Amino acid sequence: MRPVDNYEVFTARPPDAPLRHNGNVRGSEPVDAAVYAHLMYDEWRWREMFVVPSREIVKVIRPK
């Protein structure tokens, strides 16, 4: 069984709208995560959709 990673999902819908965080999905590869994100967050006609491995996100401010 392949290891599964967590991916954060970001989308933008109207033109010139900033990206927003929609949630997360899990997948063993980025392509799998992209398919799951498309299936789970298919409620709008997104202009853009990205998946980013959660481990690659750098925290700028941490809670104390």
Q: Please state the overall shape, judged from the principal axes of the Cα atoms.
A: flat
Report the biggest beta sheet as strand number plus sense, adding barrel if it closes. 3 strands, antiparallel
Chain-averaged pLDDT = 94
**What order do the SSEs take from the amino end to the carboxyl end, as H and E?**
EEHE
Distance between the termini: 37 Å
Note poorly predicted spans.
Answer: none
The residue fraction in helices comes out at: 10-25%
The gyration radius over C-alpha positions equals 13 Å
What's the total number of strands?
3
How much β-strand is present in the residues? 25-35%
Total helical elements: 1
* Widest β-sheet, arrangement of strands: 2-1-3
- Class by helix and strand content? alpha+beta
Write a concise synopsis of the structure shown.
The protein has one helix spanning 30-40; strands at 5-12, 20-27, 48-53. By secondary structure, it is of the alpha+beta class.
